[in-house]
Amino acid sequence: MKIHYGTALAAVALVAVHVLMRLTMNFHESLEYETVLANYKFIPYAIMLELILVLLSVHGFNGLRVILLELKQGKTYEKAVSYGCLAAMIGLIAYGSRTIIMVNMGMV
After folding, report:
1. What domains can you pick out in the chain, each with its CATH number?
2. What's the CA gap between 73 and 79, in Å, rounded?
3. What's the CA gap between 8 and 78, in Å, rounded?
């Protein structure tokens, strides 16, 4: 449970910083293509977005794992749920990281 609480607190803090940074300009301006690319190319901000992605993925899939483990018990089921959630979390983080990597490599 400590992982769940820790990721929640850290995510709240980083999402608050993210929202405050978005409030520095008009909403429609923050969604313009050039602005989004500039955000991804600004390394400190891209790192913060990556941390938010990791924290929320860990938090969400850990919560899903706990819910699924409460539905049914059994050694095989618990391993399947744990490894399934871990694989889904890694897949989501990899897919989310793809955008930042593609922008910084000039593929977009």
Report:
1. 2-104 (1.20.1300)
2. 10
3. 23
Distance CA 90, CA 10 (A): 19
Distance of CA 46 to the CA centre of its chain: 12
pLDDT at residue 50 greater than cutoff 90 = yes
Distance of CA 69 to the CA centre of its chain: 23
How far from chain centre, in Å, is Cα 23?
21
CB 53 within 8 A of CB 96: yes
From residue 34, how far is each of 18, 28, 38, 40, 103 by CA, in Å? 18, 12, 6, 10, 11
- pTM given for the model: 0.89
CB atoms within 10 A of CB 81: 19
Q: Strands, DSSP E only, in 1-108?
A: none
pLDDT tens-digit series, residues 27-43: 888 889 999 999 999 99
